[in-house]
Amino acid sequence: MKEIIKEVISNKRYIFITYILFALAASIQSIATGPKTFGDDTIEYSRYNNYLIFKNSFHHLKNNQDLYIAYPNEQWDLYKYTPTFSVFFGLFAVTPDWIGLNLWNLTNALVLLFAIYYLPRLDDFKKGAILILVLVELMTSMQNAQSNGLIAGLLVLSFGLLEKEKYLYATLCIVFSFYIKLFGIVGLALLLFYPNKWKLALYTLLWTIALAIIPFLFIDIDQYSSLLQSYMSML
Q1: Of 5, 72, 81, 64, whose CA–CA distance to 41 is shortest?
Q2: What average pLDDT does this structure show over 169-190?
Q3: Fewest C-beta atoms under 10 Å: which of 2, 163, 195, 197?
Q4: What is the pLDDT of residue 148?
Q5: CB of 52 within 8 A of CB of 61?
Q6: Three-state secondary structure of the chain
Q7: Which of 52, 24, 56 is nearest to 36 (CA)?
Q8: What is the mean pLDDT of the chain?
Q9: Which of 74, 47, 86 is nearest to 218 (CA)?
Q10: Nearest to residue 169, comparing CAs of 149, 139, 199, 198?
Q11: What is the pLDDT of residue 165?
């Protein structure tokens, strides 16, 4: 029995299929379950409210609306991410909810899965065991359409890339993580433990600038400045 369990955990295909099934199950549950209320609010909102917050931010950005104020007729709670993430989420927002939500949860699950399998100096059994251990927490995150799996995956992947001296892509993962949620900036601490710090600093600066200007695809400098002021005020 012990050998069978080890063989299953060591099998990448089994783990991959498990992660896909859990991501799809989380999405189906959210779509199939009826609306609910949050806190003391009497208004009923969708079970995948977080997804709608992300989705609506893309449309608000395109329409030159303030991303960081309440829209109680559309969603519960505020959008607390960057304008850059709003643009990124347009990849999901342009699809029907039942497609976009599945794609979003699959992105969270598979980025984390790939990141764990990319770790150096661990065999497939240890990597599989890690993925099984975090699956319950990941499932909770996906049931709420959160971004935790994606951020965790990006930070773990950045470590794997740094270990393999792929600094350009490692710094992209770190910078993108804090353009999703600001606490991703802690990933910069990893850079202190690797050589070529000037190169790492330059790559980080370049990615920071590149991701910062992406919203200009939809808005002008005045709207961008207004959004940043509103963001700081909301935080």
Answers
A1: 72
A2: 94
A3: 2
A4: 96
A5: no
A6: CHHHHHHHHHCHHHHHHHHHHHHHHHHHHHHHCCCECCCCCCCCECCCHHHHHHHHHHHHHHCCCCCCCCCCCCCCCCCCCCHHHHHHHHHHHCCCHHHHHHHHHHHHHHHHHHHHHCCCCCCHHHHHHHHHHHHHHHHHHHHCCCCHHHHHHHHHHHHHHHHCCCHHHHHHHHHHHHHHCHHHHHHHHHHHHCCCHHHHHHHHHHHHHHHHCHHHHCCCHHHHHHHHHHHHHHC
A7: 52
A8: 94
A9: 86
A10: 199
A11: 96
CB 149 within 8 A of CB 108: yes
- Copy the structure tokens of residue 67: 């991303």
CB of 36 closer than 8 Å to CB of 48: no
pLDDT of res. 38:
78
| pLDDT of res. 35 | 77
Query: Would you mind telling me the total number of residues written for the chain in this entry?
Result: 235
- At which residue do the structure tokens 């990615």 appear? 207
Give the burial class of 116: count Cβ atoms within 10 A of its Cβ; 0-12 exposed, 13-18 middle, 19 or more buried.
Answer: buried
Confidence of residue 210 (pLDDT cuts 50, 70, 90): very high
Distances (CA, A) of 15 to 112, 133, 235: 12, 12, 38
Per-residue pLDDT at 34 = 78
Tokens of 86: 């709003």
Q: What percent of the chain has pLDDT over 90?
A: 87
| Contacts with 126 (C-beta within 8 Å, 6 or more apart), sequence order | none
Q: Which pair of tokens denotes residue 76?
A: 């519960």
